[in-house]
Amino acid sequence: MNEKFQKLLIANRGEIAVRIIRAAKEIGLKTVAVYSDADAKSLAVQMADEAVHIGPAHATKSYLNADAVIQAALSSGAQAVHPGYGFLSENADFAEAVERADLVWVGPTPHSIRTMGDKAAARAAAQRAGVPTVPGSDGVVQDVEEAVRIADHIGYPIMIKASAGGGGRGIRVAADANELRQQFATATAEAQAAFGNGAVYLERFIRKARHIEVQILGDGQQVVHCFERECSLQRRRQKVWEEAPSAAIDQTTREALCDSALRLARAVAYRGAGTLEYLYDDDSREFFFIEMNTRIQVEHPITEMITGVDLVREMLKIALGHPLRLRQEQIRLNGASIEVRINAEDAAKNFMPSPGLVSQLSVPGGPGVRFDSMLYAGYTVPAYYDSLLGKLIVHDENRTAALSRMRRALSELKVEGVRTTIPMHQALCNDPSVIAADFDTGFLEHWLAGKPLENKQPVEVCS
Fold this sequence. Notes:
By secondary structure, this protein is an alpha+beta fold. Helix content is 33%, strand content 26%. It has helices spanning 14-26, 43-47, 66-76, 92-100, 110-117, 119-128, 144-154, 177-195, 251-267, 300-307, 311-319, 399-412, 422-429, 432-435, 443-449; strands at residues 7-10, 30-36, 50-55, 80-82, 104-105, 158-162, 171-174, 200-204, 209-219, 223-235, 238-244, 271-281, 287-293, 336-343, 345-346, 352-353, 356-357, 360-362, 369-373, 380-381, 388-396, 414-416. It is globular, with a radius of gyration of 22 Å. The protein starts with 6 loop residues before the first strand and ends in a 14-residue tail after the last helix.
């Protein structure tokens, strides 16, 4: 069949740009990287067939500059844009602008992004599809008095969440009406500053919740799921450790959870890769839909490890115009996988960012080990972007074996010149609660508060 495009522009940076370039090359596509002043020597620039400079280091003047990205695609002759995650990946206006420029958008339709990217609208769509949601407000709350009335009905504690939010930002928890009155203005102001939209809604706060999410793939007509991931180990609502499958749920719950994700994805005729996020109540064993991410996720590799499905390649195939190649019965859950995020942060100093020159790099190998990264010895980690250096992923026949493999892989991973979160992950691997999978979304904050970490990694000071 005639393909819709032969050259792809990657509107992103870092490890996800490298990941997409690799997948694109494997199916014969030419690749175009974009880069800021700070990323001129990045691995993505070195690996892509072409690279286009799009502006200064600050993201608002480069990777968030929609006009510059689209102009880079047009000037390079690219015919499609893959947004990766973060930056413009869930911006429906950008997706529309890409399509108006006669470029293929590798992702869901702008309508799907708007419907499912708006957290309040997504809750309403889930309720229409019969998917359980956390008890909360019917959409956006207009003012603090309405919030108090709704909270009195739902009960405390209660969460105030940004309607346009993501990545844990724009969330506040109120224990009672007085705290709700204090937090409401703060939450709306933070939402306005972070997302350009101050709308918020309310949800019941579940004290012992696990974060479980379902990976789906769709072509606009057919949808399949690729089972669940658990991402309960979070710091300040940012995931640091993910695993698949979840050790907390049984097969009956798994089937109900994945079926609910399929119902919602079908209801919006979903196209591309997406993730439906849920809270799982360990006490009641109920699950509740909370939001959908209309893009590839950072933690997608663990799903690839347990299913053997290359999610980025499937995204590209769908964007090229191919119907979904996978039937549900072909997707099997095999073994267990764990991913830890290696960040340039000093956990011993309240996770202070640690940009700088990577003087030495030694990557673990052996069976069932994967390291998705943009690092190389001699690379300078810029201070302008998030601190993610790479993702160490392992796979084995069960969770116990995967944990053992992760301990071994972490012992082999050496990143010298900057501080990293490797010591924290080594400590987590040996923690009895983590070994027993006995944790929830509040676990890591308490664990860090009671466990001072040392960082003995060598760091060279460069002049």
